[in-house]
């Protein structure tokens, strides 16, 4: 019944995706541009989603903690430049936004893709939420994807967990990497 089932798995290389920001700067998802060594990539549904707006505004409050542990945040969607410009009027954020993810790029991330219910919702297919944390080696350390806007990670718990993972004394490996065995 599934049209595709390739999900981006923990421990795999993050795909090479380059996108523009509103100032025509180019960003590579998964590669922090500042002094950070890890990158948190948020894929959100688009400007039409009030839950995305709430989630992104909540994330802003945790930026100092994430920066303290060396994690830079970037957010992107399949929205156009104009749609992102309009959405930013309802966001109170300082982290980087890019726009224009293609369906092929969304699929390379293993995201669920939805068809708009009407033209009033949006004018293009869009991704359901995804959150990826990529380590300094370009490897997916944490992945969280959903098929609807109501299921997202708790950001405070996520930040606390990432702080614990980043502590070298904990020597915490990438989880969820055991191979699937046939017949199990």
UniProtKB/TrEMBL annotation:
Ranges for domain Thioredoxin: 8-167
GO molecular function list: peroxidase activity
Keywords of the record: Oxidoreductase, Peroxidase
Stated name of the protein: Thioredoxin peroxidase
Species annotation: Enterovibrio norvegicus FF-454
Record lineage: Bacteria, Pseudomonadati, Pseudomonadota, Gammaproteobacteria, Vibrionales
